[in-house]
Amino acid sequence: MIGAETAGLPDEGGVGTPDRLRRQASRLLSQLTMRSDRLVTEGLARVDARKWHYAVLASLEEYGPASQAELSRRSGIFRSDMVGVLNELAGRDLVERIPDPGDRRRNVITISPRGRHHLRRLDETLDDLHDTLLAPLNPAERDQFMRMLTRLLDHHTRTP
Question: Which residues have C-beta within 8 Å of that of residue 107, sequence separation ≥ 6?
Answer without folding.
Answer: 67, 68, 97, 98, 99, 100
